[in-house]
Amino acid sequence: MQQRHILLAVTGGIAAYKVPELVRWLQRAGHRVRCVMTPAATEFVSPLVLQSLTGEDVRSQLLDAGEEGQIGHIALADWADQVVVAPATANTLAKLAHGMADDLVTAVALATRAPLLVAPAMNVNMWEHPATQDNIESLRSRGVRFVGPEAGELACGWEGVGRMSEPSEIGAAVDLSLAGESLSGEVVLVTAGGTRERVDAVRYLGNRSSGKMGFAIAEQAARRGARVVLVSGPTSLATPAGVRRLDVESALEMRDAVLAEWPDVTIAIKAAAVADFRPARASDLKIRKEDLADGEAPTLELVRNPDILAELCSDRGARIVVGFAAESHDVLESARRKLERKGCDLLVANDVRSTTTGFDSDMNRVSFIWPGGENEELPTMTKSEVAEQLFDRIEKLCEGRR
Predict the structure, then answer these.
(1) Model confidence over 78-127: pLDDT tens digits?
(2) Could you say which of 156, 313, 344, 398 is catalytic?
(3) How far is CA 388 from CA 148, 224, 335, 392, in A?
(4) Which CATH number fits domain 187-401: 3.40.50.10300, 3.40.50.2300, 3.30.300.180, 3.40.50.300?
(5) Which of 180, 194, 385, 400 is close enough to 207 for a disulfide, judged by CB 3.0 to 4.6 Å?
(6) Cβ neighbours of residue 355 under 8 Å, at least 6 residues apart?
(7) Average pLDDT of every residue of the chain
(8) Phi, psi of 327 (to 5 degrees)
(9) Is 278 helix (H, G, I), strand (E, B) or coil?
(10) Which pTM does this prediction carry?
C-alpha cells in the first residue's frame, strides 16, 4: 500500500502501553505516523517515546500557544488520511458521539474529514453499559469503524470484553479502512477450508484443505469495501480484518450456514473443499479394533452430501456465483464439465497433485473457466494475488449485472 498519513490519537487507558508497537506496525506498513494525546494519556505512555519513534512532535495540549503557532489542530486534522483513536476510553467514546471538543483528540476528530477508526479499551461493565452501547451505535451510524475490543483478562482484574485489540489487528483494520470501495454495497459470501464428516467419537473423513485460498478471497473482498461473511471449516487461520466468520464442521452444517445467509448475499464464492460423501451412520462410541473379529475391518456405508454449489446456482437470481474445482487429473476437462453441470458464472480450477501449490501452500496456480469455452491460465502466484485477479474479474461481472 502507498504511504498514507496516519494520525494516532492516544487517550488515557492502560492499553496505551501497546501504542509504541502500533506505531512500529504502521511504519513497517509504509505509513507516516504522527501522534496526539490527551493529558491523561501522557501518564500511561511518554510523549518522548512516541516522538522518538515517529520523528514527529507529539501534541497533547489543545490550548498551547507555542504548539498552535507551529501547527494548529485544524492543520493536523487536514494532514491525516486516517485518524486512529487507540486506546479509546469510554469517556472519549462519549465525547466523540456527542460532538464534544474539549481536548486535542476530540477536537481533531471533530475537525477532520479523514475516516475515523476507533479501538476501544475499558472495563467490561463500562463496555456493556447501555450508555456506552448507545454511543457506539451513534458513531457507527456516522461511519466510524471499530476494531475490538477483545475478550480476556482485563487490567482491572475483571474477565470479559474490554481488551484493546492487538497492534497487528488494528494495523490491518487501518489498511482495510484505507482500501478502495469498489465493492461497496455488495455482500460477499465465501466458503473456505475442508469439512469433516464424523465416523465415530474420535474419527472423521476429511481432506487436506488449509482454507488459505478462501481466507485470502474473504480478505480481498473486505479490502474492496464489501460486507463479507466467511463460512469456514476447521482451520487455525486467523479471521481477516472486516470479515464476519461462521465456523462449521460438516457439509450439512456448512449448507445450513450458507442458506441462512443467502437472502442478503449478492456474490457467492464457494472455495471450500466440501466432502461429497459422509458415513450413513456415525457411531457415538469409538470403534475399537479389539471389539472386532481378528483381521476384520469396519465397513463404512457412505451417502451423498448435498451439492451446495448446485443448490445456490439454481436459486441465484441476479447473484454472481463462483465455484472452485480441485482436481487430480484431467483438470481443465473436469472443471469445464463441472461448470456446465452447476451453472455458475465462473469456475476456478487448480491441480491438487502439485507439491508447491494448492493444498497447504501459500501459492496457487489456477485457471479461470468461463461459460462459452474460454479458459484463462494464470501463472503461479500467491493465493492473495489469485484473490486479487479473481475480484478484478468479478467486478467486471458486477458492471455487466448493473
Answers:
(1) 888 889 998 999 999 999 999 988 888 998 888 888 888 899 998 888 89
(2) 156
(3) 27, 10, 21, 6
(4) 3.40.50.10300
(5) 194
(6) none
(7) 87
(8) -120, 150
(9) strand
(10) 0.67
